[in-house]
Amino acid sequence: MDLGLRGKRAIVCAASRGLGKGCALALAREGVDVVITGRNVESLEAAAAEIRAAAPDVAVTPVAGDITTEEGRAAALAACPEPDILVNNAGGPPPGDFRDWGREDWFGAVNANMFTPIELIRSTVDGMMDRDFGRIVNITSSAVKAPIGILGLSNGARSGLTGFVAGLSRETVARGVTINNILPGPFDTDRLASNIKATAAKSGRDIAAETEARRNGLPAKRFGTPEEFGALCAFVCSPLAGYITGQNLLIDGGAYPGTF
């Protein structure tokens, strides 16, 4: 299925691995030129090579830096000043007990998972509206819909972004720009492994047993793959999804038990 994205330009944040890389791969395969960001140069270059091999007809530009800093954002925007697509992504804050978190922990979480995407949106959304097309996707978390106790920093910061997007997305859609959030559940990524390790330490169960219990507790009986996540992202970024905005799209293998 041709999503109608060939020739578009995208910035995909934190795309050296995991869900960000899955999104960059899916967009590149649809003919999108991608700028990918990441803090680790070696991992970022390896991801760029993988994407080029999968989509040799598109431009893949790695930009090393921390997207949660002003310098990191400036570097990404310098490499792609007029993106058609922006995929916001940043590593989630660590799990833990809120009693152990101080002011700097909360500021760090809000900076990475709320302020940074808002700043990138502020830098790109007007240009998208001027060009009558734009797609902004924020990778958040299923914890926005069903909070996870040990992820309080993430629950709070990402919910703030969700509220902001709910308002702005209704102002941009008439000019061809949609803004949506994709809420991943358990995906086979380093982030999941880190959370399972923390849960295992708290419960006293070994990591293998905790992983198996987590997997078997899902209706799908497996974790999601970055490729599956990327496919959803590519569709949401396409012209075919122009009537979808301000939504929180849950992709979790049926883990959320609610009707709504």
Structure description:
The chain is built from eight helices and seven strands. It has helices at 18-29, 41-54, 70-79, 103-130, 152-172, 190-203, 207-216, 226-236, and strands spanning 9-12, 33-38, 60-64, 85-88, 134-139, 177-184, 248-251. Strands 3-2-1-4-5-6-7 form a seven-stranded parallel sheet, sandwiched between helices. The longest helix is centred in the middle third of the chain and has 28 residues, at 103-130. The chain is globular and about 55 Å long.
Give the key terms.
260 residues, seven-stranded parallel sheet, 8 helices, 46% helix, 14% strand, NAD(P)-bd_dom_sf
The whole-number mean of residue pLDDT values reads 94
Major β-sheet profile: 7 strands, parallel
Q: How much of the residues is beta strand, in percent?
A: 5-15%
Number of strands: 7
| Spans where pLDDT lies below 50 across 5 or more residues | none
Strand order of the largest sheet: 3-2-1-4-5-6-7
| End-to-end distance | 29 Å
Radius of gyration: 18 Å
* Percent of residues in helices: 40-55%
Secondary-structure-based class equals: alpha/beta
Shape: globular
Instruction: Summarize the helix and strand pattern as letters.
Output: EHEHEHEHEHEHHHE
* Count, helices: 8
Q: Short description, anyone?
A:
The protein is of the alpha/beta class and 260 residues long. 46% of the residues lie in helices and 14% in strands. A seven-stranded parallel beta sheet has the order 3-2-1-4-5-6-7, with helices on both faces.
Topology, pairings included?
Layout: E1 9-12, H1 18-29, E2 33-38, H2 41-54, E3 60-64, H3 70-79, E4 85-88, H4 103-130, E5 134-139, H5 152-172, E6 177-184, H6 190-203, H7 207-216, H8 226-236, E7 248-251
Parallel strand pairs: 1-2, 1-4, 2-3, 4-5, 5-6, 6-7
Helix pairs in contact: 1-2, 1-8, 4-5, 6-7
Pfam families: adh_short_C2
Protein name: SDR family oxidoreductase
Family: Belongs to the short-chain dehydrogenases/reductases (SDR) family.
